[in-house]
C-alpha cells in the first residue's frame, strides 16, 4: 500500500513551476531515492509532500487521504521532513531538541540514543556547539523519535564527511525495514542513495526523467547520466570515487 | 534611614507593575518577536473594568455593558473579571492584529501595537466615568514595621505577586516542553512546525497568560497607584527599559530591573524634597530615567538583543522618489488658497491646522517612510520648536522669520540627540527609544515649571515689513494673512523637501532604508545620513511646532503630548507614510484638521476622533500597509496598465 502518493502534482514559487505534473508513490517499508541535478525540483517535491508548499494542481495523498494544509498537523500524523537546514534549534540543548520531537506514545529518548551512540554523551550540550555531523545525527534522531510513517529526507550527506554519511543512511534503511516507514530520500550522493534505496526516480526540470529499481539504475549508469542532463549529450556525468556526481 | 526604607517600599507597587510588564514583554517577544507597546494599555483596561465593577457592579464592554450585581460587585468577582478582561484583550490583540502581521516589517508591527494602545486609551474615557473615580481597596490595609518604617502590607503583596509571576513565567520557559517549544519558535518557526508544534497556539497561550498576569498585578496594585485614564499605558516604557536591560532574554532579570526602576523613581521623589536638589530636576526627572536606561541599554547591548528568526520578512511599502510636477503643485496650491478664502471661523482654523500638520507629517514621511527609521517623537520636536518660539519672541524679541528658524534649529539639535541611538539600533527598538525620548521631553521639559511657567507660554504675533501676520484680528479667529503666510512657509519647505528627496540625498535615504550594509558598500555614509535624516525631520517638525505656536498665540503642553504625536503617526501611516501625497492627506486627517473639524462641527462626534484614528490605524496596518495614497496609486497604475494593454492589443 502506498503511504505517500503524488498525483499530477505541479508546484513552485510564484509563477515559476519547479515541479510539473509529477506522479510519484512510496510504499510502506520502501526507500525511494529522488535524484537529479540542482534545480530539478527535488526539494520542492519534499516541501509539497509535507504541506509547506501547496500544489497549484494535482494532489498529495498520505495513507490514502488528501494531505492537510497545516504542517504541524501533518507532522503529528507521521509525515516527517528532515530538511537540508536540519530543523534543529541551536539555542537549545540536544535533550531539549529531542524532547520537543517526542510525543505521547512515541519512542523513549534513550532508545533513540542507543541507535545513535555518538549523540548520547552530548545530550546536555547546546546544539550550536555540535559539529555538522552531530547536528545531522540529531536531526535524524528527532525524526526517529516522532515514529514517522512517511519520512522525507533532504540531502542527508550535505556538508558531511563520507564516514558520517555511511553511519546515517543505514539508520534510514533500518527504519523502513523494521518500522515499515515509507522513505523518500533526496540525495546528491548517487552511489550511496542507490545502495540504500529500493527504487529511484531521477528528476529533470521538474519532470520524471527516469525511474526504476535501485538495482536497475546501478546497472545502467549511462541511463542515469542521460536522465541527469536531459538531452545535453555534450555534458558528461562523472561520478567521483565517493559516488557524488561531478561535471567533467 | 526609616525615610529611605519608606520611599523604597513606596516604589514597590509601581515597580511591581513595571516588573510584570517587563517580564510579559520578554515572554511575548520570545513567543512572537513582537515588542508590544500596548502591554500597559492591556493592564489599563483590566484596572478600569475591575474598578467599575467594584463601584457599580456594571461590567463595561467596548460596546454595551452588563449589570453583574445590583450594587458594588464582590472584590473577588471584580478582580477576576478585570483580570479576565486584560487576558481577553491581549488574546484578541494577538489573534486579530499581531498574528496577521507575523511576517510584516517592524514598522507595521510597531504601528499596529501603537494602534491597539491608542484604541484602548481612547476607549477608556468614552466607556468609563474617569472623573473622580477611586479604586476600592482590594488587599488588607494594615502596615508592618520594617527597619523603623511603616510599610503597607498591600504593597508587599503586590510585589510578591509580580515576582511570583516572573518566577512562574521563567519556570514555564525553562522547565516545560511548551516553554521550550516557545523558545524554539523564537529561533525558527518553520522548524517548529516541522516538529509538530503550532507556533500560533504557543503564542496565543503566552499572550493570554501575560495579559492575565499584567492585569492581575495592575488591578491589585491600583488602589495604591491610583486610577488614571492614561498612566498605566505609559508604564510600558519603564517596562520596555527593563526588558531591554534583560536583553529580551531573561524574564527574571527583566522583572528585577522593572522593580529597581520603580524603586529608583520613588527615591528620586524623595531626593526632590531635599534643599540641595535643583528646582529644574523636581518635575519629570523620574520619567527621564527610563529614557536614559533605554539609551544606555541599547547602546551597550544593542547588537546582542535577539532578532526574530525563521519568518520571512515582508518588505516595507514601496517608495517612489517624488516628482515635482508644476501643474499638480499649482492645482493643490490654488485649491488650498481657495479653501482659505472661502472658509472662515473654525473651518478656516481647521484648514490652517491641516496645512501645519502636513508639515509635521512630512517630517515623518522623510524619516520613517524614506529613511526607514521609526520615530515616535515628531510632536516632541514640534513642541520644542513651539516652546523655544515663545521664549525667543517674548524674552528676546527675535523678529519673524528668524523666529521660525532659531526654534527649528533647537529642535534639530534635539533630533540629532534622539537620533544618535539609531546609529546602533533599528526597527522596533528605535521606536522604543524615540517614544521614551518623547515622553521624557514632554514631562521633563514641557511639563516642568522651571522651563515652562504655569501662566502659559505667550507668543508674540509675527510681523513682516510692518505687515501684521498675527492669527487673530478682532473677532476673526484666523486671519487670511496668517493662513497665507502658513501656506507659503509650508509650501516652500515641501518643495525643498521634494527636491532633496529626488536628488542624491533622497537616494541615499532609500538605499539605507533598503539595506544599510549594501548602502555602506557603495560609499554612502550611513551614520551621517541617518543623523541628517533625524536633523532634517526635526527641523521640519520644529517649524511646524512654531506655526502651531503662532496659530494658538499661547502654548500649553496639551498641543504636543505623546498622544498627539502617536495619533499623528497613525494618520500618516493610514494616509501613506511613503509619499509626499501621504503627508498631504495626513494633514487633512490630523488632530484639529479638516476631518476633525468636520467630525466636531458637522457630525458632532469630535470626541470620537482618537478612537476613529486608532481603529483606522489598526485596520490599515493589518489590511492595507501601503495606506490610502498607496492604494489609490496602485489602483490608478492598474487602470493605466489595463488601458495600455488593451491599446496594444
Relevant terms:
heterodimer, A: 248 residues, alpha/beta, Rossmann fold, 2 domains, four-stranded antiparallel sheet, 28% strand, B: 649 residues, mainly alpha, ABC transporter involved in vitamin B12 uptake, BtuC, two-stranded antiparallel sheet, 8 strands, transport (chain B), ABC transporter permease (chain B), BCAA_transport_permease (chain B), transmembrane helix (chain B)
Map the helices and strands.
The complex is a heterodimer of chains A (248) and B (649).
Chain A: E1 2-13, E2 16-27, E3 31-35, H1 42-50, E4 57-62, E5 65-66, H2 71-76, E6 79-82, H3 94-101, H4 109-115, H5 132-145, E7 150-154, H6 162-179, E8 182-186, H7 190-196, E9 199-204, E10 207-213, H8 214-219, H9 221-229, E11 237-239, E12 245-247
Parallel strand pairs in A: 3-8, 3-9, 6-7, 7-8
Antiparallel strand pairs in A: 1-2, 1-4, 4-5, 9-10, 11-12
Chain B: H1 2-10, H2 12-32, H3 39-56, E1 58-60, E2 65-67, H4 75-98, H5 106-127, E3 143-146, E4 149-152, H6 153-175, H7 177-187, H8 189-194, H9 199-225, H10 231-234, H11 236-245, H12 251-271, H13 285-301, H14 326-342, H15 345-370, H16 378-394, H17 402-419, H18 428-446, E5 457-458, E6 463-464, E7 467-468, H19 480-502, H20 504-514, H21 516-521, H22 526-552, E8 554-555, H23 562-575, H24 580-589, H25 594-602, H26 609-623, H27 627-648
Amino acid at each position: 500500500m502506498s503511504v505517500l502518493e503524488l498525483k499530477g502534482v505541479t508546484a513552485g514559487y510564484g509563477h515559476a513551476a519547479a515541479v510539473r505534473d509529477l506522479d510519484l508513490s512510496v510504499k510502506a517499508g520502501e526507500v525511494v531515492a529522488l535524484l537529479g541535478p540542482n534545480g530539478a525540483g527535488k526539494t520542492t517535491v519534499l516541501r509539497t509532500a509535507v504541506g509547506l508548499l501547496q500544489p497549484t494542481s494535482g494532489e498529495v495523498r498520505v495513507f490514502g487521504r488528501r494531505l492537510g494544509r497545516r504542517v504541524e498537523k501533518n507532522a503529528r500524523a507521521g509525515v516527517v521532513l528532515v530538511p537540508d537546514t536540519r530543523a534543529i534549534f541551536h539555542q537549545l540543548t540536544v535533550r531539549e531538541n529531542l524532547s520537543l520531537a517526542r510525543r505521547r506514545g512515541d519512542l523513549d529518548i534513550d532508545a533513540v540514543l542507543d541507535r545513535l551512540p555518538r549523540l548520547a554523551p552530548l545530550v546536555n550540550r547546546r546544539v550550536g556547539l555540535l559539529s555538522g555531523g552531530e547536528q545531522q545525527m540529531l536531526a535524524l534522531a528527532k525524526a526517529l523519535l516522532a515514529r514517522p510513517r512517511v519520512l522525507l529526507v533532504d540531502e542527508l550527506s550535505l556538508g558531511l564527511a563520507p564516514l558520517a554519511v555511511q553511519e546515517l543512511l543505514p539508520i534510514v534503511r533500518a527504519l523502513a525495514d523494521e518500522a515499515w516507514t515509507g522513505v523518500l530520500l533526496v540525495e546528491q550522493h548517487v552511489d550511496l542513495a542507490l545502495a540504500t534505496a529500493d527504487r529511484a526516480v531521477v528528476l529533470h526540470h521538474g519532470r520524471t526523467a527516469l525511474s526504476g529499481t535501485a538495482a536497475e539504475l546501478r546497472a545502467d549508469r549511462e541511463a542515469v547520466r542521460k536522465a541527469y542532463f536531459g538531452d545535453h549529450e555534450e555534458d558528461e556525468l562523472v561520478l567521483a570515487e565517493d559516488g557524488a556526481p561531478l561535471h567533467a | 534611614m526609616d525615610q529611605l526604607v519608606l520611599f523604597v517600599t513606596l516604589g514597590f507597587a509601581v515597580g511591581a507593575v513595571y516588573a510584570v510588564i517587563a517580564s510579559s514583554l520578554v515572554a511575548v517577544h520570545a513567543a512572537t518577536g513582537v515588542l508590544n507597546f500596548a502591554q500597559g494599555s492591556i493592564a489599563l483596561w483590566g484596572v478600569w473594568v475591575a474598578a467599575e465593577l467594584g463601584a457599580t457592579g456594571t461590567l463595561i464592554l467596548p460596546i454595551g455593558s452588563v449589570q453583574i450585581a445590583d450594587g458594588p460587585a464582590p472584590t473577588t468577582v471584580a478582580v477576576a473579571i478585570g483580570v479576565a478582561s486584560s487576558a481577553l484583550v491581549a488574546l484578541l490583540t494577538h489573534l486579530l492584529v499581531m498574528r496577521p502581521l507575523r511576517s510584516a516589517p517592524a514598522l507595521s508591527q510597531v504601528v499596529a501595537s501603537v494602534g491597539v494602545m491608542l484604541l484602548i486609551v481612547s476607549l477608556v474615557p468614552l466607556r468609563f466615568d474617569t472623573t473622580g473615580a477611586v479604586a476600592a481597596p482590594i488587599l488588607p490595609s494594615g502596615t508592618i514595621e520594617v527597619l523603623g518604617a511603616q510599610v503597607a502590607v498591600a504593597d508587599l503583596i503586590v510585589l510578591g505577586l509580580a515576582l511570583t509571576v516572573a518566577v512562574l513565567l521563567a519556570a514555564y520557559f525553562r522547565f516545560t516542553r511548551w516553554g521550550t517549544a516557545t523558545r524554539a519558535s523564537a529561533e525558527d518557526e518553520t522548524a517548529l512546525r516541522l516538529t509538530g508544534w503550532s507556533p500560533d497556539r504557543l503564542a496565543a497561550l503566552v499572550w493570554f497568560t501575560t495579559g492575565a498576569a499584567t492585569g492581575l498585578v495592575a488591578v491589585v496594585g491600583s488602589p495604591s497607584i491610583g486610577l488614571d485614564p492614561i498612566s498605566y499605558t505609559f508604564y510600558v516604557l519603564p517596562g520596555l527599559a527593563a526588558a531591554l536591560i534583560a536583553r529580551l532574554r531573561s524574564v527574571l532579570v527583566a522583572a528585577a530591573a522593572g522593580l529597581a526602576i520603580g524603586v529608583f523613581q520613588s527615591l528620586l521623589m524623595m531626593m526632590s524634597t531635599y534643599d540641595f536638589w535643583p528646582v529644574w530636576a523636581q518635575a519629570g526627572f523620574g520619567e527621564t530615567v527610563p529614557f536614559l536606561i533605554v539609551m544606555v541599554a541599547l547602546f551597550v547591548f544593542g547588537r546582542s538583543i535577539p532578532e526574530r528568526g525563521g519568518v520571512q520578512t515582508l518588505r516595507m511599502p514601496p517608495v517612489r522618489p517624488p516628482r515635482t510636477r508644476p501643474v499638480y503643485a499649482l492645482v493643490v496650491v490654488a485649491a488650498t488658497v481657495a479653501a482659505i478664502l472661502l472658509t472662515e471661523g473654525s473651518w478656516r482654523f481647521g484648514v490652517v491646522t491641516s496645512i501645519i500638520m502636513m508639515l509635521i507629517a512630512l517630517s515623518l514621511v522623510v524619516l520613517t517612510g524614506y529613511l526607514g527609521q521609526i520615530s515616535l517623537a515628531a510632536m516632541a520636536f514640534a513642541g520644542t520648536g513651539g516652546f523655544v518660539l515663545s521664549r525667543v519672541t517674548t524674552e528676546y524679541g527675535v523678529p519673524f522669520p528668524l523666529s521660525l528658524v532659531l526654534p527649528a534649529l533647537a529642535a534639530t539639535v534635539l533630533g540629532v540627540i534622539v537620533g544618535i541611538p539609531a546609529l546602533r539600533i533599528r526597527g522596533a527598538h528605535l521606536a522604543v527609544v524615540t517614544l521614551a525620548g518623547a515622553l521624557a521631553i514632554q514631562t521633563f521639559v514641557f511639563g516642568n515649571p522651571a522651563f515652562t511657567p504655569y501662566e502659559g507660554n505667550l507668543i508674540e504675533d509675527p510681523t513682516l515689513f510692518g505687515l501684521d501676520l498675527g492669527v487673530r484680528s478682532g473677532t476673526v479667529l484666523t486671519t487670511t494673512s496668517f493662513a497665507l503666510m502658513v501656506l507659503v512657509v509650508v509650501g516652500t519647505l515641501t518643495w525643498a523637501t521634494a527636491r532633496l528627496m529626488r536628488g542624491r540625498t533622497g537616494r541615499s535615504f532609500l538605499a539605507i532604508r533598503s539595506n544599510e550594509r549594501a548602502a555602506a558598500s557603495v560609499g554612502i555614509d550611513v551614520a551621517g545620513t541617518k543623523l541628517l535624516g533625524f536633523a532634517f525631520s526635526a527641523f521640519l517638525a520644529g517649524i511646524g511646532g512654531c506655526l502651531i505656536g503662532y496659530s494658538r498665540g499661547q502654548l500649553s503642553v496639551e498641543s504636543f503630548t505623546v498622544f498627539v504625536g502617536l495619533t499623528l503617526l497613525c494618520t500618516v501611516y493610514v494616509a501613506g507614510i511613503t509619499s509626499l501625497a501621504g503627508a498631504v492627506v495626513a494633514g487633512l486627517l490630523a488632530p484639529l484638521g479638516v476631518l476633525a473639524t468636520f467630525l466636531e462641527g458637522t457630525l458632532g462626534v469630535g470626541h470620537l476622533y482618537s478612537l476613529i484614528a486608532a481603529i483606522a490605524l489598526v485596520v490599515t496596518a493589518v489590511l492595507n500597509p501601503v495606506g490610502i495614497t498607496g492604494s489609490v496609486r496602485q489602483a490608478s497604475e492598474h487602470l493605466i496598465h489595463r488601458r495600455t494593454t488593451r491599446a496594444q492589443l
